[in-house]
Amino acid sequence: MGFTKRIQGLEEIPAKQLIPIGGTTYTAAQLKAIFQAGIEALKTLTDKEAEAKQAAEAFRNAKAVALGLETGLKQWAFAAYGTTSPIPSQLGFAPRKQAVRSVDGKKQAVAQAHATRKARHTLGPKAKLAIKGTVVVPTVPAVPETSVAN
Asked: Within a domain: residue 121?
């Protein structure tokens, strides 16, 4: 911002000289003090920004660790106490909601299952019992006997 350079330049101006700026008259010492306050405010801001960055990084790290443990804690709470216990809800975990299928959804699922079985040519257990396999006996060509003459 150049405040340091302005302060150095104001040191060269005689102390008794008045400097009119915007309808107000200042001495060199007053202007140096104003510019010095700007430098100090900037330094404070820079320090606070660095602290804020460190705090934000610490928060992100702590949050990552906590989120990593949250799933395990939820699983443990429901495994140890069950879904009807108040303990998991006291920890802030709600039990899983049961999916509710509509009648149309159930009909569609049954039709899909039948279509899949038909496409794959799969049979039920009773239909499988009706199927009997046949054993194919390989035919071996007869080897002609060769007689040995004495």
From this structure: no
pTM for the whole thing?
0.46
Q: Looking up tokens 């400097």, which residue turns up?
A: 19
Residue 26 belongs to domain spanning: 3-90
| Residues in the chain, overall count | 150
Residue 73 within any structural domain of the chain = yes
pLDDT means per 10 residues, the chain with 150 residues, are 86 89 92 93 95 96 93 91 89 86 90 84 76 70 65
Tokens of 13: 């101006």
Number of structural domains in the chain: 1
Specify if 134 maps to a domain: no
Instruction: Say if 128 falls within a structural domain.
Output: no
The DSSP H or E segment spanning 111 is: helix 103-120
Tell the residue number behind the tokens 């330049």, with chain if given: 9
> Token pair of 117, please?
């079985």
Amino acid at 3: F
For residues 77 and 97, what is the distance between their CA atoms, to the nearest angstrom? 16
Contact partners, residue 26, CB within 8 Å, separation at least 6: 18, 19, 20, 34
